[in-house]
Structure formats: structure tokens, C-alpha cells
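QA checklist item 7 of 12: single-chain prediction sanity check.
[x] sequence parsed
[x] length recorded as 201
[x] structure emitted
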Amino acid sequence: MARYTGPKTKISRRFGEAIYGPDKVFDRRNTPPGQHGPKRRKKMTDYGMQLREKQKAKYVYGMQERQFHTFYVRCLAKRGNTGDLLLQMCESRLDNVVYRLGLAPTRPAARQLVTHRHIEVDGKVVNVPSYIVKPGQKVGVRERDRNMDAIVESLKHPREKAYDWLTFDDAVKTGTFTRVPEPSEVPETVNMQTIVELYSR
């Protein structure tokens, strides 16, 4: 699946939740898309539920199948619960950390900041959205870009809650990834264990 750039409300309606964040259109019309959307649908098979969960995770984190599977393989080689490790790796992506810090209103916007070389990690420009941020690393805006309208405007609308695994210094627009979040702390409702079961078939 290539990176999705189409109507986001349509995707949110497919999954029955605003996976891209607050959505006024979704709030008014949250039935599945299509003329038969409001009608009751037949029960989904286990495989269908697993595939649906994987698609949702890829839409949420803006990842393609090849990259997502690569993350799975890397987590499979580690000790611990593969599903939890997969979620933690997705949360450690640079574009996701930029989004969590409030430097961008959405993950696609955060991805754009990274690819356009506005973001630094430990003082060095990193333009790879999938870069895995390690605990203790500092993620911030390049000094010459700190007054960008998009960033200033995004910071005027802070997230609904602060994240315990991140700290942020507004004066220099730089945050610290203090630790990898626990799966229970991640607000997204993605069941990674279901995705692991799909890949294990």
C-alpha cells in the first residue's frame, strides 16, 4: 500500500474512529462510506479482522507494507512481546515524535517537516521520517526555522494531554524523548498483537 494522500475522513469512517485526529465531518457522519454504509454488515472473519487492524496501523503511522513488515521482522528478533515492541517502534519514529511534541498538527504534516529538513536530532538535521529516536535524544526545530508560521500555529494548540515519555522546551522548540512509552500509555487503539498473528499465519 503506497502512502495514502486521499480523503482522510473516508478512511476514518471505514474504521469507525477518527484515526487522523479530531474530525468535524466524521463527528457528523461516522457510518462506513458508500451507499450501503449505514446498513448492518455481516460478521467479519478472524483473518478479515487481522487484515483490517494492519491496514489501520499503516494508515495511522503513515507506513507502507514493506516498511511495516521490516519493523515486524526486527521486533520478532528481539526479546519480549512482539506486538508491544512493534507499537513502541512505531511510536519511536521521528515523524511520530515530532507530532507528539506538538510541532505539527498531524503526522503527515510532521512527516513534511522532517523531509523538508526543518527538524534536528541532537543538533543534526535528519530528513528521514522513519528514523528511530532513542531514549535521551533531543528532537527540535532548526534554529532558523523556529518562527515558521506552521510550527508556531501548531504550538498554539497543544495536545489534549502531555506525554510522560516526552519533555518539551518551548523557548528553543526542542523536546527530549526520555524513554520508550509503555503500550498502555499510547492513545491509539491499534491492536498490534492481532497484526502479529496475521504475519504468523
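[x] summary fact logged: The longest strand covers residues 138-141.
[ ] second reviewer sign-off
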